[in-house]
Design a protein that fits this description.
By secondary structure, this protein is mainly alpha-helical. The chain is built from three helices and no strands. Helix 1 runs antiparallel to helix 3.
């Protein structure tokens, strides 16, 4: 498996984790004052999603700059 496929797979799993942490956050808020761990838990997957998403966003431009090699 090459680097780009790894990044895409990690990005997919991070999106699932992020969604679950957001759902847990809403459930905890519905039950009362949630602990700080629950409130801030979506931030780590969100930042990791940002970096992997930016990497995938830049890939086509880097490939174009290298003479049209396929980046995926």
């Amino acid at each position: 498996m090459d680097w780009n496929k790894w990044v895409r797979q990690i990005h997919r799993w991070l999106s699932i984790i992020f969604t679950l942490t957001v759902i847990a956050n809403f459930v905890a808020m519905a039950l009362g004052q949630p602990p700080a761990l629950v409130v801030y838990s979506p931030l780590l997957p969100l930042f990791l999603l940002l970096f992997s998403g930016l990497y995938m966003f830049v890939l086509p431009y880097v490939a174009k700059g290298r003479g049209g090699q396929r980046a995926g």
